[in-house]
Amino acid sequence: MEYQLNINKERQQLTMTPKEEGQYEICIGEASHNAGIEWISEHILHLTIDGKQSTAYVADGPDGKIIMIDGQVWFVEDQGTAARKQRCSSGQKTPTEVRPPMPAVVSQVLVEKGNAVKAGQGVIVVSAMKMETTLTAPFDGIVENINASVGDKVTPKQILVDITENKAGE
Amino acid sequence: MFSKILIANRGEIALRVIRSCREMGIATVAVYSDSDIKALHKIEADEAVYIGLSEPSQSYLNIDKIIDAAKQTGSQAVHPGYGFLSENADFADRCKREELVFIGPPANVIRNLGDKITARQIMQESGVPVIPGMSEEAADPDTWIQNADQIGYPVLIKASAGGGGKGMRVVHSSDGLVESCWAASREAEAAFGSGVIFMEKYLEKSRHVEIQILADSQGNAIHLLERECSIQRRHQKIIEETPSPALNPELRNAMGKAAVQAAKASGYVNAGTVEFILDTDNQFYFLEVNTRLQVEHPITEMITGVDLVREQLHVAANLPLTLNQQDIEGRGHSIECRIYAEDPENEFFPSPGKIIFLKEPSGPGIRNDCGVYSGFEVPVEYDPILSKLVVHASTREQAIQKMIQALKSYAVLGVKTSIPFLIDVLSHHAFSEGDTYTDFIDTYFQGWKQETKGLEIAAIVYAAHAMIPKKNTLESDVTQLTPWQTLGNWKAY
User: Fold this and answer.
1) CATH 3.40.462.20, applies to B132-201
2) Residues B202 and B220 sit within 8 Å (Cβ to Cβ)
3) Which fold has domain B206-444?
4) What are B354-413's pLDDT values in tens digits?
5) Domains of chain A by range and CATH?
6) Contact residues, chain B, for A32 at CB < 8 Å
7) A129 to B462: CB separation less than 8 angstroms, yes or no
8) Which DSSP helix (H) or strand (E) runs through B187?
9) Which chain A residues are within 8 Å of B467, Cβ to Cβ?
10) ipTM greater than 0.90
11) Between chains, do A59 and B452 touch, taking CB under 8 Å as contact?
12) Is B292 an annotated catalytic residue?
């Protein structure tokens, strides 16, 4: 089977073909390797690649797999899935929504519904693990709705403040 | 000795205190908030009392609730751990009024030493060298400018009421001094409830070396050697070790003596830490006293063989110290790495969330004070420390290698941690040369990113996880198979 992967944002391709029990042939780039692979338990994989043994810890994460080997961490996703996700989202590179960068608690709301805001103006303050971050308006506009109040627990999936952009000429 | 103690804290330190209490036959009471319903410290104590919402002011900082919990369970003493109420003189006072023993120094000592300006004055009066700086409160810009000129740039603005990097600013010239003072003051007000700031000379290249002290209520005070804590990021320690590569026996003795002097001058009782700054000429200056057990206390325990929590309980029970200064000897070398749930590639931003899988390192000379487990949801409301990984070996080089191997065998999936970063720091030549100054991270590890060597194996693992079914795990092979299970169609699951 062929895999096209993004590993910590680097592209990597490989093919893996089962041979006899527990043995696989792996082609990465120019090279071909013999690997013996078996599960130790739900999150622990044991590999022998060209005679050298490794233990890997693996789990499924929200965006792919999380892999840890010898203290190094890898976030790996399938390039196809990543591309689909990119298309589904607004496709814009610059943030256009007011979302917290990590799970956090709202500590201060700086604006009210109906306020006019400028790009870069602080609209809401969130805190996580004793660090505070002020989230800003991505563009000039009017505050349409405030979707969270002080004390709420919020996640990166949530848009905290809806801002309607002032388009030129409006 | 007490028969029941309440631990007014959470996570790894609460668990660590519970362990010593258990060994001493003392019953333990844990307190917990909404986020900690399944926390290890809550589960492991003999009793647990719910004290409120996750937000610290509603639970772990709520003095009334903690006192109520102590009284309703018949606890005789309270161990405050570190952070939270451990350096809150009002809490110590309140315990006293409620006839609960506060395991720590008396309230007035906490108050005096907790105010950095007062602490400096006490030290100066008893001949302990202090860093050139302001010794009086001032809240007006003109005095600030005057003081800074007198001290000489660069200056370090600090919060009088707290630490941990909050309210700290380095200022290199008079431009921006006043704004930095106001900014530091606002940050200090938010973090500690007091906007009082002061200034010290900033030593560009310095080491942070602290001395563990222990004093009883009968006037005896000893020191338990030093800890080198120079590897820091955002003014917060991440790696500590003992002995310090910078100290020779003479300097160690001098600093130890100064620390004991500081303890006696301030009327100190119980365990504490006197922090010093060492400049490039190996001159030491008093920085502050931490009037509690510190995060990094395990490395001292490893080289001295002393259980500091046990000693704290003895002192709190009004017993005299069982140890003399001559009894304190350091053997070998110990290093601690703080394992935080944070992203080392993104300014060490906290990384809360669910720990999908955790596998702790173990082996000779390895100690992991861990407050979490596989499946635990790391809360957003508290300090993101997951564990303290500590090693002990005969020599510094061996301790470094032992720590690197321990880090490599530590697996945490689900939250980001500093593990890959710490491995690189410990592998760096400057670390093995003992070149550990407080600017170490800024000098060698700005904008650190994990190496990509090893990427190919990660690709193979991904493919294996996706392709190979888990049915044939070794687990299912080695479950105890009895004849009942090997007969007919029965399988071992």
Assistant:
1) no
2) no
3) D-amino Acid Aminotransferase; Chain A, domain 1 (3.30.470)
4) 999 999 999 999 999 999 999 999 998 898 999 999 999 999 999 999 999 999 999 999
5) 2-88 (3.30.700.30), 104-165 (2.40.50.100)
6) none
7) no
8) helix B177-192
9) 1, 16, 18
10) no
11) no
12) yes
